[in-house]
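Example S7 (structure tokens).
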């Protein structure tokens, strides 16, 4: 854990005696709301969109929740929010005098996403970078998360303005990088890794998604896109936290509203790494 991301850091340096980098006058870390007690904040990041970052975030949240932890998901992927759909949440969040109340899944995972605020879920969010970044900061500060063991941040993809804001303003304890096999070849995963390193955020490891498909008839595994995650993990000196196949049962569970009943062991190592970090 880096000095900046001290366990239990609320980002509120005024009430903390720790001699950490958060006290650096140049630190852009923002405090969370006064009603929040968030023990660990983990960013789920990717070099580009469509690799399954939200899927992995949702699966990690379900796994942590099943272990008895109090879990929240901050959907910082403002222009491509998919977390509410995964958990079958269609309503709108409410607000009271202390802040915005997050939505809750059937098993009590707290969720905040721009799609829980928009009047029409299909409306595109046509906002400039600083406005999007402002919304993410509001989700961190103005949402009444309460007591959480883990807040997972579904980070916007890439290395632009908004991921930069997330990394700079929210005290992340660690990042999990999600990639698909093709990205490993094209160095995109290294960009995500280097950005986290530049921001002093410990990289917990890499999850390779869409690694293979299993033939429903013979059970044989096919690595359609090839695989290089072992090599890249070794080159970067980080752990390979799992390989997840293209699994239609995952999307079926989203479609029939039973995602929280998911029983897979694809991400066991990643969950262990988050808990032991
Ligand atoms: P990202 O957050 O990186 O943009 P998503 O998590 O939204 O990507 O995934 C893109 C699409 O692929 C979604 O429809 C999602 O349900 C699907 N998907 C992701 N991972 C898998 C997987 N391992 N098996 C089957 N479908 C997947």
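Recovered sequence:
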């Amino acid at each position: 854990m880096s000095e900046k991301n001290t366990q239990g850091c609320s980002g509120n340096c005024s009430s903390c005696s720790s001699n950490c980098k958060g006290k650096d006058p140049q630190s852009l870390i923002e405090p969370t709301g006064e009603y929040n007690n968030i023990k660990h904040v983990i960013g789920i990041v990717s070099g580009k969109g469509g690799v399954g970052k939200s899927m992995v975030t949702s699966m990690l949240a379900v796994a942590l929740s099943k272990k008895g932890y109090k879990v929240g998901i901050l959907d910082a992927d403002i222009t491509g929010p998919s977390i509410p759909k995964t958990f079958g949440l269609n309503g709108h969040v409410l607000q009271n005098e202390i802040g915005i109340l997050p939505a809750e899944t059937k098993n009590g995972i707290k969720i905040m996403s721009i799609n829980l605020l928009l009047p029409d879920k299909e409306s595109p969010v046509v906002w400039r970078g600083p406005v999007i970044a402002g919304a993410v900061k509001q989700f961190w500060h103005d949402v009444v998360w309460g007591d959480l063991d883990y807040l997972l941040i579904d980070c916007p993809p890439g290395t632009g303005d908004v991921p930069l804001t997330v990394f700079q303003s929210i005290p992340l304890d660690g990042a999990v990088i999600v990639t698909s096999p093709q990205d490993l070849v094209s160095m995109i995963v290294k960009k995500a890794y280097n950005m986290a390193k530049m921001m002093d955020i410990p990289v917990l490891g890499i999850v390779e998604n869409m690694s293979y498909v299993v033939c429903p008839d013979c059970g044989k595994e096919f690595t359609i896109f090839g695989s290089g995650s072992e090599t890249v993990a070794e080159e970067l000196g980080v752990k390979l936290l799992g390989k997840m196949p293209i699994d239609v049962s995952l999307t079926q569970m989203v479609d029939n509203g039973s995602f929280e009943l998911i029983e897979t062991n694809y991400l066991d190592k990643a969950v262990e790494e988050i808990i032991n970090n």
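Notes on this example. Residues 54 and 154 are 6 Å apart (CA to CA).
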